UniProtKB/TrEMBL annotation:
InterPro entries named among the record's database cross-references: Aminotransferase_I/II_large, AspAT/PAT-like, NHTrfase_class1_PyrdxlP-BS, PyrdxlP-dep_Trfase, PyrdxlP-dep_Trfase_major, PyrdxlP-dep_Trfase_small
Single GO MF annotation: pyridoxal phosphate binding
Subunit structure: Homodimer.
Species of the source: Parvularcula bermudensis (strain ATCC BAA-594 / HTCC2503 / KCTC 12087)
Keywords assigned: Aminotransferase, Pyridoxal phosphate, Transferase
One biological process term in Gene Ontology: amino acid metabolic process
Protein name per Swiss-Prot or TrEMBL: Aminotransferase
Family: Belongs to the class-I pyridoxal-phosphate-dependent aminotransferase family.
Residue ranges occupied by any Aminotransferase class I/classII large domain in the UniProt entry: 16-370
């Protein structure tokens, strides 16, 4: 957000800035979703609702998990919130004691360590390697867990790396976690439907052996339905945890926006064919960007299997241009070529940058031209 703000400032000063730093799709929110919101306003659905979501939204969430994962949920196991981010905050706020440890594989979504620290707990970073597809190594996880470990934050498809979690790998992680009865798993599935490696949905961590009673599954419509501004997230987990989350929400945000809830009911009920079109467009853009990046001397980039980011290693260019680090790379790129990317150090992975390919083909082509020129 800080990079994007700087880009906006440059734009306001008259520069032709290309912004590939934002975490949102460039597609429009689907028309049936907008229509459902307008109908909800017309029908007077403009008042407080139940803190954790309307019965209609909870039914739609239940149906999603039954349909997509053959996973049955009761209403006490579901909470809808003002965005997925608030659900993560509420869950950690409800459970962390000062000094508790939260294991966060890096690269990680920027908000995780900040939220953990806001709750008085300690983020413990578990580094992953590009050479291992940015997947957390089960043996390293085992060595990192202590009696103080309260949560492990897993996010697949991952922001920023785009890695997805193969079923066997998830099972190996679950086996390690099972040995620590106090540890909970936050499975951040917000990019669940943006996957290129197999048809959706991905594996559900809560279905792993021994994991249902200790897994909070985080999801929402922000990324899947191009609804970042509507602020609607939801989660599923064991009833006592969800009751605690409900209490945090009840004393802070109250219910998520009533109109957004009606819109989310429509979103979750939509035929998934629009997603197939989006995925096809995103795959083409991904391939263009990865191909171009790998042709630039000093850059190497894995092809992500999910989400809409690439996370190339730019160390070679940093060294060749005599720059201090990835932040200096991004600052110079913004100043010289008016192209906004996010430095990898924001995600706990210095030497990398994150580039969102959720932008029009013409924008991506122009951006790749500017990047090539900058790196030359
Ligand atoms: N989790 C991850 C990994 C994300 O990238 C984001 C948004 O960028 C979120 C959660 C939160 O999404 P929202 O609060 O818009 O539902």
């Amino acid at each position: 957000m800080a990079v994007t703000q700087k880009a906006r400032d440059l734009q306001a000063a008259g520069r032709d800035v290309l912004t590939l730093s934002m975490g949102e799709l460039d597609f429009e929110t689907p028309a049936p979703v907008k229509e459902a919101a307008i109908a909800a306003i017309a029908a007077g659905e403009t008042r407080y609702t139940a803190v954790d979501g309307t019965p209609a939204l909870k039914a739609a969430i239940t149906e999603k998990y039954r349909r997509d994962h053959d996973f049955l949920l009761s209403p006490e196991e579901i909470v809808a919130t003002t965005g997925g981010k608030f659900l993560i905050y509420a869950a950690l706020r409800a459970t962390l004691e000062p000094g508790d440890e939260v294991i966060i594989p890096s690269p990680y979504w920027v908000s995780y360590p900040g939220i953990v620290r806001m709750c008085g707990a300690v983020p413990v970073i578990l580094a992953t390697q590009a050479g291992q597809g940015f997947l957390p190594d089960p043996q390293t996880l085992k060595a990192t867990m202590t009696p103080k470990t309260r949560w492990i934050l897993l996010n697949f498809p991952n922001n920023p790396s785009g890695a997805t979690l193969p079923l066997e790998h998830a099972a190996a992680l679950a086996e390690v976690i099972e040995a620590h009865p106090r540890a909970l798993v936050l499975s951040d599935d917000i990019y669940e439907l943006i996957r290129f490696d197999a048809s959706p949905p991905g594996p559900l961590f809560a279905k792993m052996k021994g994991m249902r009673e200790r897994t909070l599954t985080v999801n929402g419509v922000s990324k899947s339905h191009a609804m970042t501004g509507w602020r609607l997230g939801f989660g599923a987990g064991p009833a006592p945890l969800m009751a605690a989350i409900r209490r945090v929400a009840g004393q802070t945000t109250s219910n998520p926006c009533s109109i957004s809830q009606a819109a989310a009911v429509a979103a979750l009920g939509m035929e998934p064919s629009f997603l197939t079109d989006w995925r096809t467009a995103l795959r083409t853009r991904r391939d263009l960007v990865v191909r171009t990046l790998n042709r630039i001397e000093g850059i190497s980039c894995l092809s992500p299997s999910g989400a809409f980011y690439v996370f190339p290693d730019i160390n070679g260019v940093v060294k060749r241009k005599g720059l201090a680090d990835d932040t200096a790379f991004c600052t110079a790129l913004l100043d010289e070529e008016a192209l906004a990317l996010v430095p990898g150090s924001a995600f706990g992975a210095p030497g990398f940058v994150r580039l969102s390919f959720a932008a029009a083909d013409s924008v991506l082509e122009e951006a790749m031209g500017r990047l090539k020129r900058f790196c030359a």
